[in-house]
Amino acid sequence: MIPLTLAEIATVVGGSVAGDPAVTVTAPAVLDGRISAPGGLFVAFAGERVDGHDFAAQAGAAGAVAVLGSRPTALPTVVVTDAEAALQALARHVVGILRERLAVVAITGSQGKTSTKDLLTAVLASAGPTVANLGNLNNELGVPVTMLRADAGTRYLVLEMGARRVGDIARLTGLVAPDVSIVLNVGKAHLGEFGSQDAIARAKGELVQGVARGGTAVLNADDPRVAAMRSLTDAAVLSYGREEPADVRVEDLALDALGRPSFTLRTVDAAAHVDLPILGAHQALNAAGVAAAALALGLSLDAVAAALGGVALTAKRLQVRRLAGGATLLDDTYNASPGSMRSALDTLVAVDGTRRIAVLGEILELGDASPDEHRQVGAYAVGRADVVIAIGERVRPLAEGAGAVAVAVDDNAAAIEWLHENLAAGDVVLVKASHGSRLDEVANALG
Q: Are 19 and 75 in contact (CB under 8 A)?
């Protein structure tokens, strides 16, 4: 974050200062005071059960020098009536100051946002100082917090943008109009909240409509709903996909024994070979979207390919681990949607092993479509997994879809017990569910 006094911050956000107005914030804003850096700003919210203002002293002990909140605290405080609106106003102001030399890229999609963000961050970091969301801080609080991590030395700002309703992404692009907007896909994540895929498409399309003047929209040509978003903007459009006429194409895709993809990225006038050190054929398509965005920002295809060869993903994203007993674990417990479940099962079948076991929990936020979506995932697992462990009562439809290969268990503890009793050398085990299902407990228990 650029250095700002509390007096300056108060002017930007329309607040008042309780304490010394000359105190200067020199480090980023945080929502959790325990992780504040020296010179940082703690943003406090008064919730129904916990009041963040009560933790100001704890934030100060961690290094925070001030608080942005709705009442005075133990630290010098910028007092506002609406802390969320104030945080957003501050982020808009700071990035506005940096905008002349700062390129902003925003990413959305029903699945693959965080993985693509990680790939893009690695590519852009090879060309200049880059700031991106930590984890999946991609909402109305996470995006402005990420924006406030940019400073005078930052060249690229990568913003993953999520949505739970139509209008969410439009509000985020109102904070900063991206120079490059990437739309990955329109799937069924959060279907229960949106109500239909058409509504999801409208929400994702807001990122295309919000691109900055002179900017570029990067669209997945393999997803018809995304490809149709070309009509939403007068900005330049770059497409990516597996077939012509995509502007950036994936060709000659192959997987090694661990399911890591190698392929050629091809444009109308260049080609480059890529060996991705991460699992999953679907990551090749994400890499093509990243390449299109990087090309729009002036990087060469060779530079993109070289940087992709050294990427690493956020933890729990199809991370491979050899277990003590000789089995192989694919830990994909970061999150899940119907589409990402299918991609993970495709990866499972691509990994060499004597038996493939899929340990699957609930995909959350599917609403009334949940039973049918889980049943379809179970059916998709047939032929890709030799055994499907379906965890919990709400996942029974998945077990029904998987039929004879399914083992239905009540909870994570029962799944762990089954695995400890049955897992053998040479087995490949995939563990995946929405984050709220806590299947990280299962993955961690395997060693």
A: yes
Cα torsion angle, 21, 26, 32, 34, sign: negative
- 355-360/271-275 β-pairing: unpaired
The residues with which 370 forms a beta bridge, in sequence order, are none
Task: Tell me the β-bridge partners of 375.
Answer: none
- Give residue 164's Cα distance to chain centre: 14
Q: Is the pLDDT of residue 37 over 90?
A: yes
Instruction: Determine whether 47 is exposed, middle or buried from the number of CB atoms within 10 Å of its CB (0-12, 13-18, 19+).
Output: exposed
Side by side, the strands of the sheet bearing 236-241 are 130-132, 156-160, 103-108, 180-183, 216-220, 236-241, 248-255, 261-266, 271-275
H-helix segments, 156-210: 168-173, 191-194, 197-209
Cα four-point dihedral sign 149, 152, 154, 156: positive
pTM of the predicted model, to two decimals?
0.88
Q: Which two tokens stand for residue 446?
A: 């395997």
The whole-angstrom distance between residue 208's C-alpha and the CA centroid of its chain comes to: 18
225: number of Cβ within 10 Å? 19
DSSP state at residue 1: -
Mean pLDDT value across the chain? 95
The pLDDT tens digits of the residues spanning 331-385 come to: 999 989 999 999 999 999 999 999 999 999 999 989 999 999 999 999 999 999 9
Measured between alpha carbons, how far is 179 from 369 in angstroms, rounded to an integer?
Answer: 36
As a 3-state breakdown, the chain gives helix, strand, coil percent values, each rounded to 5, of 40, 25, 40
Q: Which amino acid is at 138?
A: N
For residues 294 and 130, what is the distance between their CA atoms, to the nearest angstrom?
A: 13
Residue 264 pairs in a beta bridge with: 251, 273
Predicted confidence (pLDDT) per residue in 61-110, tens digit: 999 999 999 999 999 999 999 999 999 999 999 999 999 999 999 999 99
Preceding omega of 245 cis (within 30 degrees of 0): yes
Q: ∠ CA(113), CA(115), CA(116), 5° rounding?
A: 65
Question: DSSP alpha helices (H): ranges in 238-352?
Answer: 282-296, 301-308, 338-350
Q: Are 175 and 92 in contact (CB under 8 A)?
A: yes
Q: Please report, for residues 120, 168, 199, 291, 310, the alpha-carbon distance to residue 162 in angstroms, rounded to integers and kept in the order given.
A: 17, 8, 14, 21, 26
